[in-house]
Design goal:
heterodimer, A: 83 residues, mainly alpha, 45% helix, B: 308 residues, alpha+beta, seven-stranded mixed beta sheet, three-stranded mixed beta sheet
Chain lengths: 83, 308
């Protein structure tokens, strides 16, 4: 994985830690369910999508969003910030 | 599968269709409607749901707390009355209708109410600021109003009847209710021979790509619809998270309550029965008159006691 990709993924992880009410460095894993467990609320989803767009430097087509696309960090990385 | 039933055939069963988007029911269809809703009420009673009959109007101030007008301005209908000043009433009475039959409103009173768009809203408003020491179950039926781009008899109407069964509690309590009640709905559907596909769905938001709630529903579905005939949602299961709890001060165990509902579009069930079983009312199925208590597991046997 490139350094740029690592940095982008770290930024996403840091964003989650900043906004998740009850997650810590230790408790946030790549498979922690973010929306389902309500660590991230629905009102923050657009902000997360904007962050992902800026990190990948490509727009995200909302029409192509599918259930589970933001399920956890592993899914987000694979879907929006692939290696 | 095209499940649309010819309106002429429906006329013979007791449907009177009004182009404004409303149905008159009589005869066999009216009898079926009573049986269908009685079955839904029986399902609600399995959860010891408190039954309410709310008014037709709902406060605009209360709906605004939900940001309803930003999310659904295209759907909303308002009751309007004239300013009671005598000169205004005289002015209106001189020529109340225009050439196309449209009401020529003169000065009106301030509009403060909305024609109910969804039955369960009344419940959260009615119960606001309450704290619950256990999960609570409710049922209510209301005539709901939604302006749509087009109307079809029984399938899509301006005024239609919605029955809802609602749970207010912790997230686990609400999820348990939705899972178990969905299974009971599946049992009901099987008993009456209606095949559906449960499909994740979103609410019909205005300018959806600009609405955070729509985007959130796309990636984290909280709404599932029972689709009959490939295109007709006859029921839905909805997890509201703690949205209504936060908005209306409902609390459970010291935190905002979660809520969820199972909703039925009554006229759509009539259409589905006719589309599936035909125009001979003698061939229409019996609807269950009772269901096992909701506290049991979904795998418990169903007691079908015949026609409701």
């Amino acid at each position: 994985m490139t350094t740029l990709a690592t940095t982008a993924r770290e930024e996403v992880r840091n964003w989650v830690l900043l906004h998740a009410k009850d997650l810590s460095e230790a408790s946030l894993t790549d498979t922690t369910p973010l929306l389902e467990a309500r660590h991230i609320t629905s009102l923050l989803v657009p902000d997360l999508l904007l962050l992902l767009e800026s990190l990948r430097q490509e727009p995200i087509d909302l029409a192509n969003l599918k259930a589970g696309d933001l399920r956890d960090l592993r899914t987000i990385y694979a879907r929006f910030l692939p290696e | 599968m095209n499940s649309i039933v010819d309106v002429t055939a429906l006329n013979a069963l007791g449907l009177g269709w009004q182009e404004s988007g409303q149905s008159v029911l009589s005869g066999k269809l009216l009898e079926l409607e009573a049986r269908v809703d009685q079955s839904f009420v029986a399902l609600a009673r399995a959860w010891n749901a408190l039954e309410y009959r709310f008014p037709t109007f709902i406060s605009a101030v209360e709906l605004q707390k939900l940001d309803y007008f930003r999310s659904f301005p295209h759907l909303v209908s308002f009751p309007v009355s004239l300013d009671p000043e005598e000169a205004n009433l005289e002015h209106f009475a001189r020529e109340p209708l225009g050439p196309g039959g449209e009401v020529q409103l003169t000065k009106t009173r301030p509009v403060r109410e909305v024609l109910t768009p969804a039955a369960c809203y009344h419940i959260y408003i009615h119960e606001q600021s309450r704290s619950f020491d256990r999960p609570r179950y409710y049922t209510t039926r209301n005539t709901c109003f939604r302006r749509e781009q087009y109307y079809e008899p029984l399938r899509r109407q301006w005024g239609f009847n919605m029955r809802e069964i609602v749970c207010v509690g912790t997230l686990d309590e609400v999820k348990s209710f939705l899972t178990a009640c969905s299974a009971q709905v599946d049992t009901l559907l099987s008993a009456v021979g209606l095949e559906v596909a449960w499909t994740a769905a979103t609410d019909p938001f205005f300018q959806p790509s600009k609405n955070a709630k729509y985007i959130a529903q796309r990636v984290n579905p909280t709404k599932t619809e029972a689709i009959f005939g490939g295109d007709l949602a006859i029921a839905s299961v909805n997890l509201h998270q703690d949205h209504f709890g936060h908005t209306f001060g409902l609390s459970r165990q010291g935190a905002p309550s979660f809520s969820g509902c199972v909703a039925f579009g009554i006229e759509r069930w009539l259409h589905a029965v006719v589309a599936q079983h035909g125009l001979d009312a003698n061939r229409w199925p019996s609807f269950p008159a009772s269901f096992p208590k909701g506290a049991r597991t979904a795998s418990a046997p169903v007691a079908l006691a015949g026609d409701a």
